[in-house]
Amino acid sequence: FILQFIHQTSEISDERIMETQQIVPNGEDEISEDIESRDKASIRTTHNVVFVTAEAAPYSKTGGLGDVCGSLPIALAARGHRVMVVSPRYSDGSPLDKKLANAVEIENRIKIFCFGGVHEVGFFHEYRAGVDWVFVDHPSYHRPGTPYGDTFGAFGDNQFRFTLLCHAACEAPLVLPLGGFTYGEKCLFLANDWHAGLVPVLLAAKYRPHGVFKDARSIIVIHNLAHQGVESAATYKNFGLPLEWYKTLEWVFPTWARTHALDPGEAVNILKSAIVTADRIVTVSQGYSWEITTPGGGYGLHDLLSSRKAVLTGITNGVDVDEWDPSSDEHIASPYSVHDLSGKAPLQKEVGLPIRPDCPLIGFIGRLDFQKGVDIILSSVPDLMQDDVQFVMLGSGEKQYEDWMRNLESNYKDKFCGWVGFNVPVSHKITAGCDILLMPSRFEPCGLNQLYAMKYGTVPVVHNTGGLRDTVKNFNPYANEGSGEGTGWAFSPLSNENLLGVSLHSPHHNVCLFTFDASCYFVLRIVWELHVYVLQALRLAVATYKEHKSSWEGLMKRGMERDSSWDNAATQYEQVIDWALLDPPYAA
Questions:
Q1: How far apart are CA 458 and CA 560, in angstroms?
Q2: Beta-ladder partners of 282
């Protein structure tokens, strides 16, 4: 917890970021050069690609991972590759199960040796949008809640559930005759986050020693390094791996993080093992690929990731342009496009705010937690409400923030609207109906809401971190002979020292209660500095909106014209796949 807090309250100066990013290998420039060379040669090699993921939209989704694994496979299939997606067949008896109605059970069932016994799993299959969607069926996936937990917290058997997924995913290309024939051994596995992290290890430890998958390669895609699949070292025997591979998963906690003086701190770390054994490593933005190699962003894995920097690549996520298109969005009142913005109507009437076309409407969509910077918004709104603006928020999360949203709505009835919960149609309406989207995330591996906002001509104001830094270019009204450049504002506070103090937010009062001596002063100062930077960026955006209409329209149109398609991202993934297949297996 302390390590996470230190990371979240640590910031990096612009100068250091720009200086370091210039030396990140395999970045967008290198990918672009190789893609351009390949396109000139008019040669494209197609591959058998197997995605392994805990979630894939529209079948299962809790966040960006589901979006990526629901869209990127379709984009790769459209480019000629044979693509399979392997994920669990979640079922809880609710109407949501209808999403799997078209998946047909396959006769092939397999037995998996792990967790001290033999476990039989089945497979369901649906062919949709050029992709083989394969669902691993086992009773452990049949329960209410999210893919990871319920109202009582994370499921206690998640290690078992996702170990089964990894074993089944490795068997699927060998045993499932999809479309009449199997994918075979020559595959490229795209393992997503820790839930699929055993796949590269299994290829190296279970299959290659027996001559199987010797031509296969693996890529680990890191969507959020904060979640690593760490469990007690005693659970290593559950994975079904040879004893000599223990060092690959071995993880030792630092002394200060152990439970007591006699605790050796020994554990297993699934994501760490994937980083050790995968042929390539991909993160969901170039900025994040650099951040995870730093002590502030590496969550204890920064040295390991730095040692593999030569095969570490950042590729920014794309947007489902069919779902997120203001010219055809069924959730908004009237369609519009970059060529005709007249349909971009204010949202005030629908959310119960006074209809004032000249008053800028600021929006926020996201989880209500510390990582998303909600406490910074909390400290900024009272000052912001003194300005001629309106604010609408949509999100759910920590109860203290939900209660705070309700209190703000009662205190500023004509200026603030808070919607506790999450609703897809409402998220589309806010994205289209707001003028400004605020994203003060402390860290953001990629971020999707800023991409959606720009597609809808809503100008983002974001914290200059991770994927937000990569995708939102600061507005410069003097560039291009006065026509301007940029798509929004990316603010950055001063660098801060790592902290030892921890902040506790009272559920009954909108104040922070601090423990631990003088370090509390620095925590309070950090929050105040962030608050000031948010206000400065927002007020600059508001002033531009009110006083420079032509510049504002330029901001809107440049954002709408930005290429955020999955085809663009798929092209970059193709290059990384080619690199992975060019070299011999990293772990053989």
A1: 9
A2: 221, 313
How far apart (Å, rounded) are the C-alpha atoms in residues 199 and 201? Answer: 5
Distance set, CA 432 to CA 237, 413, 420, 511, 561 (Å): 51, 22, 19, 33, 15
CA atoms of 406 and 505, how far apart (whole Å): 17
**Residue length of the chain:** 588
3-state secondary structure at position 241: coil
Max Cα-Cα span within the chain: 70
Single-letter amino acid, residue 209: P
386 residue type, one letter: Q
What mean pLDDT do residues 271-299 have? Answer: 96
Question: How many CB atoms neighbour CB 287 within 10 A?
Answer: 27
Identify the helix (H) or strand (E) that includes residue 253: none
> Does residue 88 contact residue 147 with C-beta atoms inside 8 Å?
yes
- pTM of structure: 0.84
Q: Which amino acid is it at 546?
A: K
- 231 pLDDT higher than 60: yes
- What are the φ and ψ backbone dihedral angles of 361, each rounded to 5 degrees? -105, 120
Structure tokens at 538: 């927002």
Count CB-CB contacts under 10 A for residue 283: 27
Cβ-contact 13, 495 below 8 angstroms: yes
Q: Number of C-alpha atoms within 13 angstroms, CB side, residue 171?
A: 19
What's the chain's average pLDDT?
Answer: 86
Distance CA 566, CA 160 (A): 33
**Residue whose C-alpha is closest to residue 218's, from 91, 311, 333:** 311
Instruction: Report helix, strand or coil for 488.
Output: strand
User: In this structure, what token pair is assigned to residue 74?
Assistant: 């379709």
Backbone angles phi, psi at 278, to 5 degrees: -70, 155
The mean per-residue pLDDT over the stretch 124-147 comes to 96
Phi-psi region of 340 (alpha: psi -120 to 50; beta: other; left: phi over 0): beta
Q: Rounded CA gap, 510 and 162, in Å? A: 40
